[in-house]
Specification:
- Strand 1 and strand 2 form a beta hairpin.
- It contains two helices and three strands.
- It has a single domain, classed as Rhinovirus 14, subunit 4 (Irregular).
- The longest helix is centred in the C-terminal third of the chain and has 20 residues.
Length: 75
């Protein structure tokens, strides 16, 4: 096997958007996540919307404006 081809494996700090912080080991020293076991509805038992407006909603809004402008110019 070749020597020195593997990335360094270091202590890393993972930070969730809810504020929960924990340590693990990874090739990256610092990571940020949107959802963790402290705030995900599956683990907490509460219901709330986790998904935020994404690309599909932006696409629909953009083309809804374009369709309304096209309809007004044709009339």
């Amino acid at each position: 096997m070749k020597a020195d081809i593997h990335p360094t494996y270091v202590e890393s700090v993972v930070t969730c958007s809810c504020g929960h912080v924990w340590n693990t080991r990874s090739t990256k020293a610092e990571m940020r996540v949107d959802v963790c076991s402290a705030c995900h509805p599956y683990f907490t038992g509460e219901q709330r919307i986790v998904d935020t407006a994404g690309r599909v909603e932006r696409f629909r809004r953009r083309y809804a404006k374009a369709d309304s402008q096209t309809a007004s110019t044709e009339a």
